[in-house]
Specification:
Elements (H helix, E strand, L loop, with lengths): L15 H6 L4 E7 L5 E6 L7 H12 L3 E4 L2 E5 L3 H10 L7 E2 L1
Parallel strand pairs: 1-5
Antiparallel strand pairs: 1-2, 2-4, 3-4
C-alpha cells in the first residue's frame, strides 16, 4: 500500500475531489438579462472540481436549464437560496458559499 507523503494517508483511500470541495470559495449571484429574464450565476470553482457533474446536479435539483461558460455555471431563473442547499448536499461546505 502506497502512502501519500503530503497527507500520510493511503493513496487509494484519498478522495481528492471531496477535499477540494471543502476549500472552494463559491459565489452565487443573480443577473438580469435581455427581456427582464433573471439568471443565477454560480462561480469560484477551482480546476479540481467536475463542473459538468456539479451543473447537472444543480439543474436536476432546481428543475431548470443551464450551461457552463468560462468556469461559471449559469442557471435559468432566480435560484439563489435553493442553489446553496443543493451545493451543500453534494459536498461543498456551507461556510465557503457566499451570496
Amino acid at each position: 500500500m502506497e502512502i501519500d507523503p503530503r497527507t500520510g494517508l493511503p493513496i487509494a483511500g484519498i478522495s481528492w475531489e471531496d477535499l477540494a470541495k471543502g476549500q472552494q470559495k463559491i459565489k452565487i449571484a443573480t443577473e438580469k438579462r435581455r427581456y427582464g429574464k433573471v439568471i443565477t450565476l454560480v462561480s469560484g470553482f477551482d480546476k479540481g472540481i467536475d463542473l459538468k457533474a456539479t451543473a447537472k446536479a444543480l439543474k436536476e435539483g432546481l428543475a431548470c436549464g443551464g450551461t457552463i461558460k468560462d468556469q461559471v455555471i449559469e442557471l435559468q431563473g432566480d435560484h439563489k437560496r435553493q442553489a446553496r442547499v443543493i451545493l451543500v448536499k453534494i459536498g461543498f461546505s456551507d461556510e465557503s458559499i457566499e451570496d
